[in-house]
Design brief:
homodimer; alpha/beta; Rossmann fold; two-stranded antiparallel sheet; 12 helices; globular; disordered N terminus
Chain lengths: 392, 392
């Protein structure tokens, strides 16, 4: 059984952006970042990648916002031997949805993350120790403020588009409210104006699993003698979250009730991977802890919980009406973490605000993860939308 | 805020069965129970309660099968001072759905449970130590075999009805296949012919949380010096499962995004109960570990995963067609753990098998837990159904 739901659909490398490099920018060195929570904070190191070429008019830049556990490596490979390309490689490249023959695509790791941008694992200059949970609690707005800082740092006055799915979608919506004049279009995919209370509930259980792990050590696990963090707890959080990314149909389709490597029940309570779906989730959990920091997981899920356009601005229409940008809103019919009704709420609010909006509910069996998997379908809509935005 | 979603709707104690007592029966003392997994096992102590009076013809007995974390205390109170009555008190009593003026109602704790019936916390006579995970891995069929043993022990040849929701629903369906001539009707509520792969996935994460807790000690935690078991892990499993018992709408309705005891975000990552839904889940988790044994949780969720009428019998129609009993199938429109489609599958199979079946999909905002909450609605259907069964 292939354990990789997503990689199956990644297109051939020859249509890729090729070899890429991670860059770093130091921001907020002179004027510190003031977070929504009231902390003052700087400098901030930002890890980012770019694909394609910035044109002379500097008006063909597209900023890609990654989801909860993504990073700046959205496309291409660091080395020819890399087993896998960036996480949205099927969507970014020559002739693809984000066409690197036309556009200059930027993707940066989020503030509070663990893939190069300053986060809880970074050294606190005041103590020479990792911040751990002394890192300020951040919001989606803080993340976007840092990204907008990077855009200015790259000499770009106005982005052609901001594009993101899930938590990336929160960021592009926030961008519209916080920097309304810095963008010409917003592509909000598999997202909503807030996380549902059910979503907060799942996040709360995931965080509980991390807090419960004795290796968590109040977040100061970087100094654990064995070098291990709360890996058991983080794996549980990931397994749980992963269920919410899949549709019931996609689980049935891919795994059903098939057993792993046997024909009959084992009748052993300790056999944790009896069904294929169990084996898959355990694999996802164990792989995740190798690449992700538990403190970042705590911070970023909290930022998701806090995000709420209506609470912050009175209404979605007031929030998003601040910009004149064109909107493309995309949902997936089997997504139950961000159900289509949330995208319809965004769309209705934009119509109410007399803004230019297109909305598509795409059919896909893959649930919330569809935006990472069904990239050809997405490309066929995003391509023309960006062309038209570019021409207006 | 009331933390008790369920107790709000429990009717006044005066309509209750009054004071009740837990009884015990010793079964399989001479001839051991042979489990589906191939273990031989006995004697089995069974904790049970009865409400109402068995008539002279001994044909008015109704057996209630409890769900995953239920027990034999389905109605009434042990003492006048008890804060809460049995778990289905609103449904069982004089003039209620299971009318104790007419019927003799029996409810027993399941095999492998932790409320009086032999389970992993019971002493293994061979070692004088608790069984822990030497307890055989059991199936829904093993649970029903023990319950049917109790019914015979009480001198009842044929039950008027077997009634159960969720895992209790699995039991009544299994009863129809295993003891087809011992029942006159089957009331299968908020259940299905098997657990979905998504349901197995949630169970797998819950079990992982228990296995990950260092206090689990491979199930031998009864001997832990501090007397504590894997309470952190079991609480996580419960919090997670609890989300699946509620509908998204009921979470929105009851908690929404309201904060617990504050008006503004705390911006503290360690504050685990910032939103009311978090506070509610933490409370549910902490309360659950006071009354439930983690090893029982492992065993019973595994029994749920294993249950599958189609796999066991070739088809649902073949499985349920073994009995001539009348069926009442009830689903709830907001139940996503056992969605109405599963009840429709049962109903269609019974029609195919030329059996007598009524199916109702009840509207309720409470998701899977509706069968425990919306008891008046359920009573209005079950009452007439049992009357008619009784008369035929």
């Amino acid at each position: 059984m292939s354990q990789e739901l997503i990689s199956e659909r990644v297109p051939a490398p020859e249509s890729s952006v090729g070899l890429v490099e991670k860059h770093f920018a130091t921001l907020f060195a002179e004027q510190p970042l003031r977070t929504d929570g009231g902390a003052e904070f700087g400098p901030v190191e930002v890890a980012y990648e770019t694909y394609g070429t910035l044109n002379e008019a500097r008006d063909n830049a597209v900023f890609v916002c990654h989801a909860l556990t993504g990073d700046s490596h959205a496309a291409g490979r660091y080395e020819d031997e890399d087993r896998k390309p960036g996480w949205w490689d099927g969507f970014i490249g020559p002739g693809k949805g984000l066409d690197t023959d036309r556009y200059f695509v930027i993707c940066a790791n989020v503030l509070g993350g663990c893939q190069g941008t300053t986060g809880p694992g970074s050294l606190n200059p005041k103590t020479e120790q990792p911040f751990a949970l002394d890192f300020p609690v951040i919001t989606v707005g803080d993340i976007v403020t840092v990204h907008q800082g990077l855009v200015r740092h790259l000499g770009i006055e106005k982005l052609l588009a901001v594009v993101g799915g899930s938590l990336g979608g929160f960021q592009v919506l926030e961008w519209a409210t916080r920097f309304p004049d810095a963008i010409r279009s917003v592509l909000a995919i598999a997202t909503g104006p807030h996380l549902s209370a059910q979503g907060i509930a799942f996040n709360a259980v995931g965080r509980r699993a991390i807090f419960s792990d004795p290796s968590f050590a109040k977040g100061r696990y970087y100094a654990n003698g064995d070098g291990l963090g709360p890996e058991l707890g983080l794996a549980i959080a990931r397994m749980l979250a992963h269920i919410t990314y899949l549709s019931e149909d996609s689980i049935e389709m891919k795994f059903g009730r098939r057993l792993q490597d046997r024909d009959e029940f084992a009748y052993e309570i300790g056999r944790e991977t009896e069904f294929q779906i169990e084996s898959y989730l355990h694999y996802q959990g164990s792989r995740f802890v190798q690449r992700f920091d538990a403190n970042s997981y705590l911070l970023l899920t909290k930022a998701m919980d806090y995000f709420h356009l209506e609470e912050s601005h009175g209404s979605i229409a007031k929030a998003l009406g601040r910009t004149d940008a064109r909107f493309l809103v995309v949902s997936y019919d089997t997504d139950w973490l961000f159900p289509p009704s949330q995208s319809r709420d965004i769309t209705a609010a934009l119509i109410e605000a007399r803004r230019d909006v297109s909305y598509v509910d795409l059919p896909s069996p893959y649930g919330h993860d569809s935006f990472l998997i069904e990239v050809d379908q997405l490309s066929s809509i995003v391509g023309p939308f960006l062309e038209r935005t570019s021409a207006t």
